[in-house]
Design a protein that fits this description.
Distance between the termini: 14 Å
Largest sheet: 9 strands, mixed
Number of helices: 3
Shape: globular
Helix content: 10-25%
Structural class: mainly beta
Radius of gyration: 18 Å
Length: 269
C-alpha cells in the first residue's frame, strides 16, 4: 500500500517549500499553504515564473499570538509579519483569470519584498472575507481555494519523479514541482489512475492532472532557471496531453483532518 512520504507547504506563493512531518488539512488545503501572495500595484499576481528569486525567500508560519510569518531572504534583515486584522485595508487582486478581494499585510512587508524583488509589490493575505471559487468545471459552487494556482492540493508520487530522473541528463528533486503531498510505494504514474483517496483520516478527490510550466526549470535552492529547459523539455517528450505537459495530480478536500508522514494511502475509487 502506498504511504505518505513527504509533506510541503509554501506559505507565500512561490517562496521556498517548507517540509513538515504533520499538517492539518482544511478545505482550502494544508493549513498555512499559499495563504499569502505578492502582487503588483495593479493587483496582478507575482510568481516564480517571472521572479524565480522568490524561491530563496523563507516564510515560516508563527504560532505566537494571532499568527503570521517569519520572513528571511538573502541580504535582507529578518521580518515578522502579523496576520492582518479584520479591518485591514483590502486590495482587488488577480490570480490567473480569478479576481478577488484580499487583505493587505502592511507597509513593512511591502517595503521588504519590494526591496528584495527590485520593484513595487504588496503582500496580501487570504482572510475570512476573501472568496475565490474553484473552477466550476471541476468542483461544486461551494468549493474554495486560496492562492494556489487552481486547486487546494497537489499530489505527486516519488516513483514518478524517479522515472523522470531516469530520462534526464541530471537528477532533480520533488521540490522542483512544489507538491503538497508526496507518496511512495506505488508504480510510476500510478496516481494518474487514482480518483478518491483516504490518507490517514483525510479523504481527498483527484480532479485533474497538473499542467506544468517553466517554473519547473527553476532550481529550488538557487532560484536559477536551467539553461537547457530541463526537466520541462524531457517531460514534453512523454507527458504531453491536450497541448499541455502533465505531471502530478490536483485534489479537492472531501474530509478535513490531520496528516502524518507514514500515513497509509488507501484508494477508494
Amino acid at each position: 500500500m502506498p504511504v505518505l512520504a513527504q509533506l510541503f507547504i509554501h506559505p507565500v506563493k512561490s517562496t521556498r517549500g517548507l517540509p513538515l512531518t504533520s499538517a492539518r488539512v482544511e478545505l482550502l488545503g494544508l493549513e498555512h499553504d499559499r495563504r499569502w501572495m505578492l502582487v503588483r500595484p495593479d493587483g496582478s499576481f507575482i510568481t516564480g515564473r517571472e521572479s524565480p528569486s522568490l524561491v530563496r525567500v523563507s516564510a515560516v508560519p508563527t504560532l505566537e499570538g494571532e499568527g503570521g510569518l517569519h520572513l528571511s531572504a538573502p541580504a535582507l534583515p529578518k521580518l515578522r509579519v502579523r496576520v492582518p486584522p479584520a479591518d485591514a485595508p483590502r486590495l482587488e487582486v488577480t490570480v490567473w483569470k480569478d479576481r478577488c478581494s484580499a487583505a493587505r499585510a502592511g507597509e513593512a512587508a511591502d517595503r521588504w519584498f519590494s526591496q528584495y524583488l527590485g520593484e513595487p509589490v504588496a503582500l496580501v493575505y487570504v482572510d475570512a472575507r476573501m472568496e475565490r471559487p474553484v473552477d466550476p468545471q471541476y468542483a461544486g459552487p461551494e468549493e474554495r481555494v486560496g492562492f494556489a494556482d487552481a486547486f487546494p492540493l497537489l499530489l505527486l508520487s516519488r516513483a514518478s519523479v524517479e522515472e523522470l530522473n531516469r530520462r534526464l541528463p541530471r537528477p532533480i528533486t520533488v521540490e522542483h514541482f512544489r507538491p503538497n503531498l508526496v507518496v511512495e510505494g506505488c508504480e510510476p504514474f500510478a496516481e494518474d489512475g487514482w480518483r478518491r483517496l483516504r490518507v490517514g483520516s483525510v479523504e481527498l478527490e483527484i480532479v485533474k492532472p497538473c499542467a506544468r510550466c517553466v517554473f519547473t526549470t527553476v532550481d529550488p535552492l538557487t532560484g536559477v532557471k536551467a539553461p537547457d529547459g530541463e526537466p520541462l523539455r524531457t517531460l514534453t517528450s512523454f507527458r504531453r496531453s491536450q497541448g499541455k505537459v502533465m505531471f502530478g495530480q490536483n485534489l479537492l478536500v472531501r474530509r478535513p483532518g490531520t496528516l502524518q508522514l507514514g500515513d497509509p494511502v488507501e484508494l477508494l475509487g
